[in-house]
Amino acid sequence: MDQTSQASTDNAAQGRTVLRNYVDGEFLSSDRTFLNINPVDGSVIAEVSEADQATVDRAVQAAQRALSGPWGKLSVQERAAMLHKVADGIEARFEEFVAAEVADTGRPVQQARTLDIARAVANFRTFADLAKTANTDLYEMHTADGAGALNYTVRKPLGVVGVISPWNLPLLLFTWKVAPALACGNTVVAKPSEESPSSATLLAEVMRDAGIPPGVFNLVHGFGKDSAGEFLTRHPGIAALTFTGESSTGSTIMKAVADGVKEVSFELGGKNAAVVFADSDFDAAVAGVMRSSFTNAGQVCLCSERVYVERPIFDRFVAAMRERVGQLKLGFPHEDGVDMGPLISHGHRDKVLSYYRLAREEGATVVAGGGVPRFGDERDQGAYVEPTIWTGLPDTARCVREEIFGPVCHIAPFDTEDEVVARVNDSDYGLACALWTNNLTRAHRAARRIHVGLVWVNTWYLRDLRTPFGGVKLSGLGREGGRYSLDFYSDVSNICIKL
Ligand SMILES: NC(=O)C1=CN([C@@H]2O[C@H](COP(=O)(O)OP(=O)(O)OC[C@H]3O[C@@H](n4cnc5c(N)ncnc54)[C@H](O)[C@@H]3O)[C@@H](O)[C@H]2O)C=CC1
Ligand SMILES: O=C(O)/C=C/C=C(\O)C(=O)O
């Protein structure tokens, strides 16, 4: 039997916290729960109420009703003001959000502060302001009678938007979709990853306290198949579905929404390259590739798992990377100077370790890492792996072609720009690429030839939220960011007036 309450959490019989769903302005628990595990030491953080089909139905119906309630009558300026209140609410409880994100993922506290939670605030502020200041198109046209006509476009909400997000940057990616969806006047039913439900549950409290009307933001917890994820994607009441996660999940979701011809926006996997030319600033390139390979234990879709280095500097580059990887500090999230936490789960660690084994079978030279660190304390029950560097694999190796999503890169030499561009493009994925060179002409030329959605030159993961973000090939469909988000989360209608 479902129970409603004003509190996002409850206590289970064992004294554990239970995270609840948030539907139509009420926190809802269910009989069926799953465990939320801390990947630092394998301990239980909380139980999570899994939303069943009836709960998802209730959430979608509430979201549909809310479209014609007070929310639907707000001006874009009023909506934007409410989203700024949500951002204020996150800031007011900043350290609680940091703690929630750190508990679910084991990431360094410093990263949660400077990247994850800070970006969640920025997502709400940015899309509130963009929606408020967005312009629309105007086309004057000639008509036979000489009087002419005016065409202008208006943006209307799509309706109920389904949001499904992953565990790697939990609140950042959740709010990257929820914020623009709301800014455009939609209502939302959102499912965070089953691996990282805590920060989204806190966000529901912030939404309520900021005065977001009941039904406008609904949170459902659960898994994908036969659970809240699939119930949401198959629901006839949603108008559009936005998803970040694995490419194969994107494909499954696309089939699920096909019958209803729903709009989709997908940010999917990557097998991104970093290319280091001999004319680059060597130290900056080493530092940049360290970041792009090992940030968040390699669990960012933008991370570089393929590194190509021009042959004259190849040996020196590999040696510098080996030295730097040896200095990375793996540890507890709260430790001073910690660089890397565990992977998200033991399940994901099994996957990453299977590639560590495969690399050896495929003939890799293991330059650094390749195994599981031993700490001699509770972290040995956690999901840590060693940051790892390989060399010596052919471009056909599975470890060079498949997304691993861990702290690992393969470094290979190259001889010419044409050759490296072809090798970078020889991938089923096309999300991001980082180029390191001091030759500006080459940077522009290569950047245009590389078939990805995002190219960084002499930097990596430098984000301006107004820019288009997304990938080609198996890496995604559509673009979000700035006006691209406004376009996706709105129905753009043309109004033609004969003068
Ligand atoms: N941004 C990225 O590129 C990400 C890539 N991954 C990769 O994917 C692998 C699997 O990780 P998962 O967390 O299982 O990713 P996933 O793509 O299966 O899960 C992402 C989200 O989709 C939901 N989901 C899964 N199957 C679904 C379905 N059939 N219908 C509706 N929703 C569904 C999940 O519950 C979660 O909220 C990882 O080992 C990693 O390699 C994982 C997370 C993010
Ligand atoms: O900064 C962003 O908007 C997104 C970053 C990372 C991902 O999308 C991902 O890892 O999936």
Short overview:
The protein is of the alpha/beta class and 499 residues long.
Runs in which pLDDT lies below 50 for 5 or more consecutive residues are none
Per CATH, the class of the largest domain reads Alpha Beta
Radius of gyration: 24 Å
Topology-level CATH name of the largest domain: Aldehyde Dehydrogenase, Chain A, domain 1
Q: What value does the average pLDDT take?
A: 97
Helix content: 25-40%
Fold blueprint:
Elements: E1 3-5, E2 9-11, E3 17-19, E4 21-23, E5 26-29, E6 33-37, E7 44-49, H1 53-67, H2 70-73, H3 76-92, H4 94-105, H5 109-133, E8 138-141, E9 149-157, E10 160-164, H6 170-183, E11 187-191, H7 198-209, E12 217-219, H8 228-233, E13 240-244, H9 247-258, E14 263-267, E15 272-276, H10 282-294, E16 304-310, H11 314-327, H12 346-361, E17 365-368, E18 388-391, H13 398-401, E19 408-414, H14 417-425, E20 429-430, E21 432-436, H15 440-449, E22 454-457, E23 472-473, E24 476-477, H16 482-488, E25 490-498
Parallel strand pairs: 3-7, 10-11, 10-13, 11-12, 13-14, 15-16, 15-21, 16-19, 18-19, 21-22
Antiparallel strand pairs: 1-5, 2-3, 4-5, 6-7, 8-9, 9-25, 14-24, 17-18, 20-23
Helix pairs in contact: 3-5, 4-5, 4-7, 5-6, 10-11
